[in-house]
């Protein structure tokens, strides 16, 4: 395989890694919050309704609640994977001369969303704000 093809493949993998890491950071944050909510609900039921809740608080229901939490979070956070990418910094614009790379991973704030029609003029910043609002009310 020629060196140029390997270099292009490496750049693609870095972009994929950037998107994956940013997605996992946000998704696992939401999952941890909702897992704490589930634990609080379980303790509330155990204290307030100790006898009645014994039939609700089973291991099967716990596994189902955790699976639904992970699935719902991944579905709602999925667009975030496309909202992050690599930005190229022009040469000479940074003060540090010892940087080995002139790209960094960041939120693509004011770029159009590629899988929506261009006529909608949808931007990532608006979508991210809406995803945060949806996650608050779930």
Structure description:
This protein is mainly α and 138 residues long. It has one domain: Rhodopsin 7-helix transmembrane proteins (Rhopdopsin 7-helix transmembrane proteins, Up-down Bundle), CATH 1.20.1070.10. The chain contains three helices and two strands. The protein has helices spanning 3-48, 59-77, 124-137, and strands spanning 84-88, 103-107. The protein has a two-stranded antiparallel ribbon with strand order 1-2. It is elongated and about 65 Å long.
Number of domains: 1
* DSSP E strands, number: 2
Q: Radius of gyration, rounded? A: 21 Å
Roughly what percent helix?
A: 55-70%
Largest sheet: 2 strands, antiparallel
CATH architecture assignment name: Up-down Bundle
Q: List low-pLDDT spans.
A: 1-9
In the CATH hierarchy, what is the class? Mainly Alpha
Strand content: 5-15%
The ordered string of helix (H) and strand (E) elements is HHEEH
Q: What would the principal axes of the Cα set say about the shape?
A: elongated
Oligomer classification: single chain
Question: Given the structure, what is the number of helices?
Answer: 3
Distance between the termini: 49 Å
Mean pLDDT over all positions: 75
CATH topology: the name is: Rhopdopsin 7-helix transmembrane proteins
Name the CATH superfamily classification: Rhodopsin 7-helix transmembrane proteins
